[in-house]
Amino acid sequence: MNSASFYADLPVEEDFSHIADPDRFYAVPQDWLVVISDIRGSTQAMLQGKYKQINATAVAMIVAVRNCFNELDLPFVFGGDGATICVPSGNESALQQCLSSSIAKADMMGLNLRAAVIPVSTLCFGEQTVLVSKFKVSEHFTQAFFTGGGIKFAEKMLKDPILIGDYLIEPSRADADFSGFECRWDSVGSRHGETLSLIIEANDQSNYDSAWKEIQRITGGADVCHPVQAEQLSFAWSPKALATEIAIRSDSAALVDRVKKYANIVLMNLVGSWLMKRKIKTEETDWGSYKQDFVANCDFIKFEDGLKMCISCSQSQRQAIVDYLTAQEQAGYLKFGHHVASAALITCMINSYQSRHIHFIDGEHGGYSLAAAALKKKLLTDQ
User: Fold this and answer.
1) How far apart are CA 194 and CA 266, in angstroms?
2) SS3 helix, strand, coil % of the chain, rounded to 5?
C-alpha cells in the first residue's frame, strides 16, 4: 500500500453496529503526521458568545490543510473547539503556512488557536498507536474514525507546553487557501426539543456497542435523532450572522473587503434559495436534492478515542440516555460527559455543490466543548 494513498486505499465500512471493532481499524503509517488544533481559553470565549466562531476555526483548519494537499483523501475529525487531520509527510513548509494562516484568522475573531504537527511515530509507544477506519455515512461522504490512544495523547501534548515543544506552530504572516469553507446557515432548532452533545469513553468495545444500541433504542434510531432535517434549513442573512465566514474568506481585514464579501454571500444565498425552491437542475448541480444531500452528509456521529454524537431528542429521551449512561458509569464500564442545548450549529466544507459537501454539527452554546469539560472533570476526580 502506497503511504501517500494509505487512507484512500482503505476499505469502506458500512455497518455501524460494531462501531469500535478493532478489526476494522488500520495503523496510520509511521511516516505520516498528525495535525491537531484547539482553542486556548475556549471557556471564556464561549462566555463571550463566540462558540460559532470556535467551531468555524476548527473547520477552517481542516479546509486549509485539505486544500494544501489538493485532492488527496485524508482522514480528519471535527471536535467542536478543535480538529485533527492526518497527512503524509513531505509538504511541511506549505502545511506550516496554512496553519499559521489559520492561527491568524482565529486571532482576527479574538480567538487564540493552538496548532501543532506531530509525527505519528512520536505518538506510538507501548500499546498506544494511531489507528483509523473509514465509515460510509452516505453515498458521497465517508468519515474517519480514530482509536488506539494516539490522538488522545496528541490532544494532551497540545495543551502541555513542555510536551508539545517545537511541534507547536508559531504565528506568522502567511496566506492559505480557505476556499470551500462556508458558514451561512442559521442554527437548527431541535425538532424533538433538545440537542444533546455526548462524549463516551468506554473500557471495552462491547461497552461502546451496548451504549450505541441503547441510545438508538431510546431515540428511535439514527434517522430519528438526526439533528438536522431538510425542511429546517434556512440561510442566515445579517452581517452579524455571516461575520464568521466573512472573516475567514476575506483577503484582508479592510472594511471594503468585508463589505464585498458580505454582498457576495448574500447574492449567493439569494440565488441558492431560488434554485432550491424551484428545484433547478444545471449541468453541475441538482439543486432540488441539495438539502436532502445536506442532511445525508452531516457529521453528527463519530469515533475519536471515544464515541461522540450530537443528536436531537426529547427531554425524557435525554434523561433516559443520561440515566442509562450513569448506571453504566457507576458499574465501571464507561465515563461520559454531555451538554444540552435547544439548537445545533452548522459549519460547512464544500468541494462541490453536487453531493460533495460535508456539514459539521455541534450543539449551540458549548456542545462538544462543554461535554468534554464535564468528562474531563470526572476523569480527573478518579485519578
Assistant:
1) 30
2) 45, 25, 30
3-state secondary structure of 167: helix
368-377 pLDDT per residue, tens? 999 999 999 9
pLDDT at residue 85, rounded to an integer: 98
Per the rule left: phi > 0, alpha: psi between -120 and 50, beta: everything else, 206 is: alpha
**N-to-C CA span, the chain:** 41
If residue 340 lies in a helix (H) or strand (E), which one and from where to where?
A: strand 334-341
Question: Residue 383: which pLDDT band, with cuts at 50, 70 and 90?
Answer: low
Helix (H) or strand (E) holding 349: strand 343-350
Q: Which helix (H) or strand (E) holds 75?
A: none
Question: Which helix (H) or strand (E) covers residue 362, if one does?
Answer: strand 357-363
Q: Which of helix, strand or coil describes residue 228?
A: coil
Bridging pattern class, strands 298-299 and 357-363: parallel
For the stretch 281-311, pLDDT in tens is 998 999 999 999 999 999 999 999 999 999 9
* The amino acid at 71: E
Q: Write the DSSP string, 258-304.
A: HHHHHHHHHHHHHHHHHHHHTT-B-SS-BGGGHHHHHHHTEE-EEEB
Which whole-number Å values give the CA distances from 257 to 246, 249, 335, in the listed order?
Answer: 9, 10, 47
Cα dist from 188 to 78, 194, 291, 301, 341, whole Å? 18, 11, 13, 17, 11
Residue pair 321/311 in contact by the 8 Å Cβ criterion: no
